[in-house]
Structures are given as structure tokens and as C-alpha cells.
Target: Peptidase M23
Amino acid sequence: MPLKRLIILFCLAVSALPAQAEGFITRLLNKPVPGGVAVVTLPEQSEAPRAQYQNQPLLVIREDGQRWIAIAGIPLAVKPGTEHIETEGGQKIAFKVSDRKYPEQHIKLKNQQHVTPDPEHLKRINRELDEQINAYKTFSARQPSNLLFDRPVDGRLSSAFGLRRFFNGEERNPHSGLDFAASTGTSIKAPAAGQVILTGDYFFNGKTVFVDHGQGLISMFCHLSAIDVQVGDEVGRGAHVGKVGATGRATGPHLHWNVSLNNTRVDPSIFIGAFMP
Ligand SMILES: [Zn+2]
Model:
């Protein structure tokens, strides 16, 4: 058999193989628990398919040049069981959500306004909340530069994502991000490339920076002592964005880092390969 024909036959055989073993991104990110991430394979087509989950557009990438995958953030409030994403054509694709237990954390705050704010503070808090929720809804066309994120600071992981939080004995929202122990002034670096879409000095979050990594994947850094970027700035992977501090509702200097996908706050430890079931 001529070599050329052998090569053609070989190529046909390879392309006819069933779906390949899951790739690096799927192994890294597929942690389908409340507050986790589901990686869902989409139907094969030439152009990137579009998909949504709970009416929010999803991050879609080509994995290993072999298949389209949608990467969906799962809200903490979702119950274990079967969930669905929906393709542009209206096809529903199921994925399973497993259980995950989140422990409690009890925190003492000196400032009672940070536990039960006055009505005047509430007005400010709600305005700031709207501003930040709008930032999380950003969906830009750019492809994230890397899905295995770099750690934004050197420092031990202190408070985990999802902790059920009690401030001075009163239950408040669960911990929406991951805390790193680091001293005031430590440089915070972008875990992936992106654009600065919001900065502010907020009642709870203190000095805050939002970076859009593309397709609804957004980082938020808060309690900073200094913000060293401006809205509209393009930041490269590893670029300095600000400095660690203790502004807003913080008991001491640390970095609080949120990662959001499809307007859903998920466990950032997944993106740095530090997820523990
Ligand atoms: Zn935190």
C-alpha cells in the first residue's frame, strides 16, 4: 500500500475514534458542586456554539482542538441533583451536581455597622451592590488568556470559599471568595490577562478592583490599601493591580479574591488547582 494512502487511512481511523479522554481544562475545572464549576461538552460544529445556564451566557472554549466545552459556574444555593445548560438551538444538556458541605465561621467585629447597618448606610450599600452586580454581568467576547490562574498574592490560604458566616453571632451571606493571608502593601497581581472594568471604595469590600478576563470570567479583589489601576486599563497576566490592605469589613490585612463565571461566584481555589472536595 502506498505510504500516502496509509497516512490517509490512519487519519480516518483517528478521526473516527470516540470522544477522547477529558483534557487538562476539564480535569482542572470540572468540580460540579454547589459553588463549583461544571464542564459540559457541547455538540460538534465549526463555529463556537453559544450556551447558557440559568439565563446567563456561558464561557465556551475549544479543548485540545477536539471539542467545544461550556464552563458553568454553579450557584451555592443550587441543590445536589440534575441541572441543565441550554444551547443556542434550545437543546438541553444535563449535568450532575454533587453535595458539598460548607463549614461555619464565627467572626467578631468591633464595628456593629458592619453587622447591622443603619438605614443611611443601607442606601449606600444597596447602591454599591448594584454597581458591583452590574460588573459581574459583563460578558465580553475575549478568550481568557489562561484558565489555570496564577495566585494573585504569595500567602497562605486563610478563609475558604463558601463558609457560612456569623458576624457577632448573626448569620450573613456565605463567604463569596477566597482569602489569602498577606501583609499590608503586598502586591496583588492579575491571575490572568484582562481589562479593569470597575474600581471603588465600598462599605463592605473597601477598596476594590474588578478585572474582566473574558466571556463572563471575572476576578474581584477587595479590602485593598491601594488601587493602582484605572477603569479601562488592559492588564497582562501577572500585572500589578493594587496592594493588600484591610479596608471595608475586614478584621486585619488580607486579600479577598472572588472569581465569577456566568454572574455566579464560584470557589477560586478551583482555578489555582487547590480545590479540596
Ligand atoms: Zn474574604
Summary: The first helix runs from residue 3 to 15. Confidence is low (pLDDT under 50) at residues 7-19. Residues 159, 175, 177, 179, 256 surround zinc ion (CB under 6 Å).
